Amino acid sequence: MNNINRKKTLVLALYAGEIMLKNGAETYRVEDTIIRLCKSKGFSYVDVYVTPTGIFISVDNKGNNQEEILSYIKRIKTRSINLNKVAEVNNFSREFVENDISIQDGINALKRIDLLLPYPHYIHATFGGLASAFFALLFGANFLEFLSAFITSIFVTYTLKYLNSIEFPPFLTNTSGGVVAATMAILLSSLHPGINIDKVIIGAIMVMVPGVAMTNAVRDSIAGDLVSGLARAAEALIIATSIAFGVGFVLKLWMYFTGGNLI
């Protein structure tokens, strides 16, 4: 394999890992995908180290020439959840390993995956609202609280989408979501005495709960990736803290100015 193809193979593997890591894949899955892609093109030695914020790859053909050793580093600055892209890269890696696909065709396929559009905002908001509403039911919500959680979650989802689009800091984004959830719950409860603020807030914040981050933290820790596990656990804790801060801030203001009574 000439130097150009070796570098292109490494770039392809790094690109695949980047897409997966940015969209919520576990550490071991990213490492395994990169190793399989590199070894399918003849690299005899591949070592990969992945954290939630970076990918480190080193490859070698076990020759005496030092120029055969290649190392790449990729910094990951943003992360979100799009498991569809993770699944697409998984499928691509299997096809790339099993079939004779050129490196350039592989890179083009990864570009198409990377450019896949997420579901429209209204679909996210609608189904996020339904999920939140049914979570409120699990905590004993009545029909009015079910509807309130649905409406509140829609407002929260659009708030998060907008703030993410302008690259607002993640901590403040989740704090803002908590503020919107608590504010909407108070406003809706003031319209009818049968609406309990607690149940509406509990349901509405479910669209922000870092479930994937917590799950990946446990899976990475069990797999032995302690640094990634701790990093993802810290990320989940920060998100949970920011949500609690936003909700608590609004409730504290409400109690301070009105004594906890509805206006």
TrEMBL record:
Location(s) in or outside the cell: Cell membrane
CC annotations in GO: plasma membrane
UniProt-recorded Gene Ontology molecular function terms: transmembrane transporter activity
Record has Amino-acid biosynthesis as a keyword: no
Membrane topology: Multi-pass membrane protein
Start and end residues of each Threonine/serine exporter-like N-terminal domain: 12-254
Segments traversing the membrane: 171-188, 200-218, 230-257
Keywords, sorted A to Z: Cell membrane, Membrane, Transmembrane, Transmembrane helix
GO BP of this protein: succinate transport
Name under which the protein is recorded: Uncharacterized membrane protein YjjP, DUF1212 family
Phylogenetic placement of the source organism: Bacteria, Bacillati, Bacillota, Clostridia, Peptostreptococcales
